[in-house]
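Lab notebook, bench 4. The sequencing result for the construct came back, and we need a structural model before the next group meeting so we can plan mutations. Quick request posted to the team channel:

Model the 3D structure of this chain.
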Amino acid sequence: MKFFASPARLFRFAGLLLFSAGFVYGHNPSSSWATVRIAGDTIELKVEMARETAWLFLGNTLDSAPDIDHSVPKLRAAAPNVYRLSLGDRVLTPKETGVELRDEDGVQFRLVFVHPKGEPLVRFEPGYLKRLAADHRTTLTLLDPADNVLRGEIMNPKKTAVDLKLPAPGPVSPAKP
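Done. Here's the predicted structure in token form:
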């Protein structure tokens, strides 16, 4: 397979699987996940994190139990800052944002951006990462419209940005059943 052409890519993929395993069984406060999907002329970014992580992103501490259920308006206001996307010096502003409290202990942010023309190199910076413990890891996965993994990256408080060359906008794929 072309994806595993180098040992470095195989290692990154193994790390992606390791961090994704926690996602299946609940939300680990030391991990978060983001998926980037190109759909038509948009970039859709979905970010999943534990409620604890969202609580810290809002500037709170864990001195008391996180009260995310009553913080949804604050989460909605903070949603545009979950990730910063930039193209050189130009910051992309989300045209749509959303927040959803997930089953168990998760929070999902959804941001939609207009896809810049061509195949741009876009910088992805998780805004919440700088507020978290040094052991926090976030996985960023670039998917094609058919949900095939094009690239996966792991970031932490020391590696706070990734540059991804995005595929050119294409037709919107029908939703999977």
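The longest strand covers residues 31-39.
Will bring this to the meeting.
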